[in-house]
Each structure stands twice: as structure tokens, then as C-alpha cells.
Amino acid sequence: MWYLMLDPNTKCKAPFITFIFLFLSLFLTSSITACSNGNCQVMEACSSATDCAPTLYCSNCPALERKQFLCTRGQATFPTSFVNGLPFNKYSWIMTHNSFSILDAPPLPGVQRLTFYNQEDTVTNQLRNGVRGLMLDMYDFENDIWLCHSFQGQCFNFNAFQPAINTLKEVEAFLAENPTEIVTVVIEDFVHTPKGLINLFINAGLDKYWFPMSDMPKEGEDWPTVTEMVQSNRRLLVFTSDASKEAEEGIAYQWRYMVENEFGDNGIRRGSCPHRKESKPLNSRSASLFLQNYFPTYPVEADSCKEHSAPLVDMVNTCYRAAGNVFPNFIAVNYYMRSDGGGVFDIVDKINGRALCGCNTVTACQVGAPFGSCNNITVPTTSPVTNTAGSFTGYVQFSRSASAVHSPNCALLMTIILYILAMAFKRSL
């Protein structure tokens, strides 16, 4: 599929559109249509997002030499729809790395932003699509607390994104709208304002969902069940990288409660899964949560669909062995929706299936059945969409097109497109 962006002032716009219309008409009336109008399933060819079934979107993956556009998963399965009532630490969830670092996020007025980007849709969108863990970098900036990429440990106007309370209010709105969902926030903490962090969460209205540090397992014991956490409305877990915040503000120091592998390039090196220097060894049993980082040091949007295919599967297996045969509770990634078809969504489904019911995927688990009782699932399946409280259909649109084609030469563009259409027409005969 080609997305064309034409200059409205170009002199060749009218003849170009005429040629395209004639060729498309000939092609569409002569070819065999496989699927459309929301009927296309995972890995079936598509020409627009509306061709794909709900929770799917239309994309390709040139990094894997897959130039054809196919329907791709855009929403996670909700594991508690299949296996409920287990301790929180038995489940696995998708986490977004630098959740706030969003393509096309507006910079400060009069400033050119100079930094990397890690995601391509809003935090609200991420949550609606099944992300349940957010990585947020927080700094003192402009007499407030901001989300920011570090430059030598400081926030400047060229790497700042927005006040942190804006994103936390998105989290609060999501938890209010979805009373059965649990969200985890991991903070890279450079906030030095006294009581600044805890007051930030209170001002965002999140204290009513707070899971108290005093009740968190401290010696590797199981967490309360997801059912208990929902019933008590303790549905927000917050961890900080600053150990002093435990005594000063009652916010859990991350590495007392979870283990974590290396981040950046060291965390994606094949055959190796070292623990982060701040973390206990991955096979430690004194922490009951396991966060697996899986993102390169320098994020490249176009490469993420390749990273989230076989290399991620391989690294999950490597880290599983390094952690003493324990699956991660969180997999932190860049551009979480980019994949070769199923990506992070499929991988987390498989992890939950193995961990929760002994099946190859969580969608094969039988509700209320003994461990190892599996339905026969032969095709990719997405989460059921219901009208019950706390459910949602999710969103798959992006803030920008990642597939736009720009050409400064109208004649060249016409030639290329007409040639491609002619070849497509020839193959369809």
C-alpha cells in the first residue's frame, strides 16, 4: 500500500489523480478481493486499517523485508478473562519504555526538541491497548515535576516533554473508567523537591488507588491475588529508583521488590541476560517481581517490528533460564505495537499461557479447569470484547503515519506508481 502526500499547489495534481483513478479502477474491478470491511484477520493482506478486524491495524515491516501490508495485532489479551484469582506476580504484562516519549509530542514554545522517541501513541492509548506498565522519567524542572529525557542527569527545555501530572491524570482517568484493571508505574527518579513525588500522585487523584508499600511482599512471597487487589481498589503500584523515598514519602524502592536485567544494548545481546547493577541477581528469590528490559540503547522505529519477532522470543527464553526458570512479569519495549504480526502481544499471551494454565497460549486456558487443561487453539486469537464494566475495545490509530511516501518529483512519482499498479494488475490476471 502507498500513502501519498501531495503538495496542493503542484501543477501535476489533477493529471496525477486522474491516472491513479483510472488504474485503480481497472485494478480493483479486475482483481479478486480476499477480505475487506473489517473482516481481515491477523497476517491477512490489507490496504487500510478499516480492512482489519477490531483490535488489528494495517502495517508492514520493511526491516524484515516484508513490504506487503498485513493486519497486525494492536491490542493485548486480558489474561484475567481466562485465569483469574491468582497472585499478581503470577501474571505477565506489557510495559512501555519511556511511555511519555511520544512521536509528535509538541515541544516547548520556541524550542527545538533534541532527544530520542520511544513510543508513537498517547499513554491513554497505550493503556487502552493493554499496556499495564509505564516507565516514567521524572525531574525537577520549571518549578514543577516534568517528564523528561536526561542529559547528564538534568532536564532542559530541549529534552522536556510535559508536566508529569498530565500523564498521571491520564492514568487516573483510565483506572476510573476501568475498575478491574491494575497499572504499575516505574519511575526513574530525579525529583529532589521534598515530598514532591507523593504530592504529585495525590494531586493527580491517584492516592485512592495506591497499593501501600507496607503491604508489599518483601521477602519474595506472593502478592495478593488480582481479585483481592481489585476488590480493595489497590490497583496502582508505584516504584521509584530513589531508595530514600521509602522513608521520606512511603514510595517503594524498586529493587527491594523486583529484579531487573540490563537495559539498552546490553539487555538485548543474544545468549546473555545479565542483571542490572542496582538489581539483585535475576535468580534471587527475595524479590517476587521480574522486569525484563528489551529495547536498544538508541530506539529506531523502523527496526522495532523486527526486534519484536524472533529476537524477542529468543531473549525471553534466555532471561527465563537466567532467572531460574521464571517468566518476566513485565516486558518493557519501545514502539510496543510494531511487530511482524503478533509481536509483544503474542509473546505475552504465550508466557501467560505457560505460567497460568500450562497451555501454549493464554487463550487456550479453560476457565476454572485444572492446570494443563487446554482448548485447541489453532489460529491467533484476541481478547473477547464485552460490554461489562472495565472492558474496552481499545484503539490502534497512531499520532502520525509511519508509511507516508514523499517525492519531490511529480513525474517520477507518477511513473513509479503507475508501474507498480501495472505490475499488480498483471499479477491479478
Automatic annotation (TrEMBL):
GO terms for molecular function: phosphoric diester hydrolase activity. CDD domains: PI-PLCc_At5g67130_like. The chain crosses the membrane at residues 405-425. Pfam families: PI-PLC_cat (PF26178). PROSITE patterns: PIPLC_X_DOMAIN (PS50007). This is Phosphatidylinositol-specific phospholipase C X domain-containing protein. Keywords: Membrane, Signal, Transmembrane, Transmembrane helix. GO terms for biological process: lipid metabolic process. Residues 1-34 form the signal peptide. InterPro entries: PI-PLC_domain, PLC-like_Pdiesterase_TIM-brl.
